[in-house]
Structures are given as C-alpha cells and as structure tokens.
Design goal:
- By secondary structure, the chain is mainly α.
- The protein has two domains: 428 residues, Growth Hormone, Chain: A, CATH 1.20.1250; 61 residues.
- It is 69% helix and 0% strand.
- The longest helix is centred in the C-terminal third of the chain and has 35 residues.
- The relative contact order is 0.13.
C-alpha cells in the first residue's frame, strides 16, 4: 500500500514513541492490513455487515493466548473479592462456635472485610494510576493471599477480624486496578468487549461460587479449609499477574515510584473520603446490632455526610485551582449519564447481593437445610452465569446498551418477585427458586459488563484504575446501605408479627411464619430497588448507542480513551 498510514502515538499500549519507532510501526501496520476484499467490506473488516466491526488481529496488544490469560487473571481478582465475602456466610455459625464469638458480633467477620475494601478503593485507585497498575495489582493479590492463609490459625476474635480487614485492604488494591489494566491494554474492539465481559462476570459468579465452595468444604472438612482454598486462589492470581500482566518499559516508569511520587497523591482527599466511608459503613453495619434508636449511629451518619461534602469541595478546588491532580475529578459527574451509571451500580449491587444473602437465610435458617443442601441449590446459578457471560460478550457489541441494561434489571426484579410473593414455603425448589436464581444471574452478568465497560470508555487512560475504584466503591456502598435497610425491614416485620419490641425480635426461626414474613418483606425492598434501576435505565440510557460497538473512527483511538459521546454512550 503506497499511502503512508498515520498512527496516533498512544494507540499501541506500553510504547514510548520516537520517530524511528513510529516508522517501524507504520510498516508493521501496513503489512498487517486486511486484503482488498476485506477493505471493501468496510474499513474495520466487518464482513458480515452486522455492525460488529471485526478488528484486524493486529489490534491485539499481544498474542491471543496471552490476552486470554491476562483477562482471566484480572477476572480472578473480581471473582476472588466477592468470593471472600460470600464464602464465610454459610460457615459463620461454625466459626462462632470454635472461636467463642457471640452471635451478635458474628457479622463483623463479613463486615470488617467489606469496610476495609470500601474505604480504601479510591485511594488505591489513584495510587495505582501513579505508581503503576501492574505493581499494585500483584502486591495487593499477594497481600490477600498471605492474610487469607494466616487468618484461620488466629484463635482471638479481635485479631481474626483484623486480618479479615487486611484482606479487604488488599482487595481494594487489586480489584479496581484490574479494570485499569484492561482499560489501558486493550484497544476498542472485540477483545476489549470479551475482556470486560469476563471481568464483570467475575463479581456475581464470586458471590454464587462463594456459597458453592464454602458449602462443599464445610460439609466434608473443617471450615478453616475455606480460607485455605481462597488463599490458594489468591496465590494463583498473584502468580498469573506476574506472568501475564505486561511490565511497562523502563522509559515509562522513569520518575515513578519512590518517595517523590508520594507528593502526587492527594492524601488529604484520601483521608477525607476514607474517614467518611468508614463512618458511614460502620454506622450502617452496627445499626442493626445495637438498634437504630442509638444516638451515636445517627451522629456517625451525619459526620460521614459532612466529611463527604468537604471531600467534594476539596476535590473541586484542586481540579480548578491547583496543578496536582485530585483524588477524583468532580467534572466527570457533569455528565448526567455517567452519574446515573454510578447510581445504577449502587442500586443494582444492593438488589442482587441482598437477594443472594436473603436466599441463603431462607434455605439455611428458615428451611433448616444444612450447608451441603444449601450449596446444591446454588449450583444452577454458577452454570447459568458462565453461559450468560459468554453470550453477553457477543451481544454487547450488537445490542443497544439501554436494552441490555433494561432487560438485566427486569430479570433481577422478577427473581426478587418470585422469592417475595406468598408462595407456600414447602413448594418445590424448581417451581420458584430455580428460575429466580437463573434470572438473577442473567441480570447480573448483563448489567456488570455494560457498566464497567461504560465507565472505562468514559474516562481517559490516566484515570482507568480510578474509574475501576469508583464503580466498585459505588457497588460496595450500595451493598452496605441496601443490606442495612433490608435487615432493618426484616427485623421490624419479625418483631411486629411476634408482638415484641424491635430490640427483642430475635433471630430467624425454622418454619416460623414471622420469620418468613420478615424475609419476604426485605426481598420486596430488593424488588423495589431493581425496578428503580430499570426506571433509571429507561430515563438516562434510552436512545444511546452500543457500548461495545466498534466505530470506524475508534480504530485510531488509544486504549481507554474518551468516548465520542454522540456515537457510544
């Protein structure tokens, strides 16, 4: 081809351009162009005319096998995070018996992880964008592995919960960084759609397989092996990160690292948002334990709101009047659609996660099933989740984004409805729970890929890890708020039907009508959240394009670049 191609320097990941290197890349691109027949089918090589835009293989950052391994590695971080939370739910009573932890404090085994994870997401996201995503991902994964393996050998309640918190701290480093790695590595195209679909499927599948793995292990071995298995997965993610995540060239790391880079971090903003998130999540967690009439619960909530206001003001001031980058750019929220996506993530995460938790309580506490019997009921969710993730990775480049999101949220709302309507409690599992689980996972594996890919494409390359932190933080905040409200509703209904004060409502009793009424009332709230999500999609996303579609002008766009808002949402 005689005409020389113009290549944008940032198009190829992890490359420092000089003129000689640029000319070599031009030659390589010319040699890798499709045939004239392919060009006649479209500049993007779309032979079938379906608008999918099959990109030439040269757009892959490296070999196909390594791309798959890289996507699997970062998906492992997302999977491991929710697995670490959900896997301890079934074994909480056994842990409490062995460590002499009162039932009123058992929830801290879960909450300590969630608190640390939610509080440090934004700070770790910005640190990863400054110091290097690969290094932070590997260190975070290794830290999770070490603390996870040590955890079950600690006989003291406080130290046990402390190490759970440390695991959440490590997850806060590798989970958002994983999105950043995908965002800067893959250019727009099929490969990026597949990678983000796989990553997004990791979170709901982690929640599902948390029950499966924990239930099987607890049924045939000591509960400590649950932590051993999770720690083993963390080791595998760490090793895979070392092997498959590309190291940036020395020319790109010059000046990074060391104490000098600490000056680039907005530590004041990090302290403000961490303290605000900690106060809010702690208040929401403890409210259902000490009672919502306790004055310091509301005091902490007020303090957290004030700190968030100060944080937002400080971020705005830095963005407008200072040269140093803020922890989070307030200007990104000027887009109503971007803001709606964050709210959607919070509400959807709350609805889906609370449904999984409530279903676990129905099987294990209300129906008095053992861990293995409960686990068997979650098997269809794992299988359907894998199938859905594969299908969505193809649909995301063909179907309008708002239709996918709308269908996903309607699916979750129907699944909540099946658990909340007054079906006789001894009805067959296959009559209501089975289709409810299938629909819930379909909804989750549709919504997560769309929102994570949307977030990545809405932010510039230098903010990819921060974008991953932001969307995960919204999901974690939604989970905490949703679970607190769901538990409060459940407790209030149980107390009303038992004729006792809320403080004396007690726990879920097997086959008790009051317990069933409380659980169903909480799931009705989750149904309302899912319907709110569908309304948000219809209002803010209707008429938008296809988030995974490959436009012709995108082929010269750098990975993780800002979207053409007129063509892609």
């Amino acid at each position: 081809m005689s005409k020389q191609l113009e290549i944008e320097p940032s198009r190829i990941p992890n490359a420092e351009y000089d003129e000689e290197k640029r000319q070599r890349d031009i030659v390589e691109m010319e040699n890798s162009l499709p045939s004239n027949q392919a060009l006649e089918n479209g500049a993007d090589g779309d032979k079938d005319g379906d608008g999918d835009g099959d990109v030439p293989k040269s757009t892959l950052p490296f070999s196909k096998a390594r791309c798959i391994a890289l996507a699997a590695t970062v998906t492992g971080a997302s999977f491991l995070n929710t697995l670490s939370i959900q896997s301890v739910v079934i074994i909480l009573p056994t842990i409490g018996e062995d460590l002499n932890i009162p039932e009123s404090r058992l929830q801290w085994i879960v909450s300590s992880y969630a608190l640390a994870f939610g509080c440090f997401l934004l700070l770790w996201g910005r640190i990863a964008d400054i110091y290097g995503k690969r290094s932070i991902f590997i260190l975070g994964s290794a830290f999770v592995a070490v603390t996870m393996i040590i955890n079950p050998f600690i006989p003291n309640e406080i130290a046990f919960n402390l190490f759970r918190g440390l695991q959440g701290l490590g997850a806060a480093a590798n989970v958002p960084t994983a999105i950043g790695i995908l965002g800067v590595t893959f250019p727009p195209g099929k490969a990026k759609n597949y990678a983000f679909s796989a990553y997004a499927a990791g979170a709901p599948l982690g929640s599902v397989f948390g029950n499966l793995i924990s239930g099987f292990i607890a049924s045939f071995a000591n509960w400590r092996w649950v932590f051993g298995a999770t720690g083993g997965l963390a080791i595998a993610v760490t090793i895979a990160g070392i092997l498959f995540i590309p190291a940036p060239p020395p020319s790109l790391t010059t000046g990074k690292g060391g104490l000098s880079a600490l000056k680039s971090v907005d530590w004041i903003g990090g302290a403000l948002v961490t303290a605000a998130t900690l106060a809010l999540l702690f208040a929401l967690t403890e409210g259902n334990v000490v009672g919502w009439g306790t004055i310091w619960i509301y005091l902490l909530i007020v303090i957290s709101m004030l700190l968030l206001v100060v944080f937002v003001g400080w971020q705005w001031y830095q963005e407008k009047h200072m040269t140093r980058k803020p922890l989070m750019k307030i200007s990104m929220f000027k887009s109503a659609r971007f803001s709606a996506a964050m709210v959607l993530m919070a509400l959807f995460f709350a609805a889906f996660n609370d449904l999984v938790v409530s279903a676990t309580f129905i099987f294990q506490d209300y129906q008095a099933l053992n861990a293995l019997q409960t686990t068997l009921r979650f098997i269809p969710t794992g299988a359907s989740g894998v199938i859905t993730a594969f299908v969505v990775s193809h649909l995301i480049s063909r179907v309008p984004t708002w239709l996918l999101l709308f269908g996903g949220n309607i699916s979750v709302s129907i699944s909540c409805l099946l658990f909340s309507i007054p079906i006789p409690p001894d009805t067959s599992y296959f009559a209501y729970a089975f289709p409810a689980f299938i629909l819930s996972v379909i909804g989750a594996d549709i919504t997560w890929p769309c929102l994570t890919l949307f977030t990545s494409k809405s932010l510039p390359q230098e903010d990819q890890a921060l974008g991953g932190a932001l969307i995960n933080a919204m999901g974690q905040l939604g989970r905490a708020v949703g679970l607190a409200i769901t538990t409060a509703i459940q407790t209030a209904v149980m107390a009303r039907d038992r004729g006792v004060p809320v403080e004396a409502s007690g726990k879920i009793m097997p086959w008790e009508p009051a317990s069933l009424a409380g659980l169903r009332a909480g799931i009705w709230f989750n149904f309302g959240l899912a319907i709110c999500c569908a309304i948000i999609v219809a209002v803010y996303f209707r008429g938008t394009g296809i988030v995974g579609k490959i436009e012709k002008n995108q082929q010269q766009q750098r990975p993780g670049g800002t979207l053409d808002q007129k063509k892609v949402p």
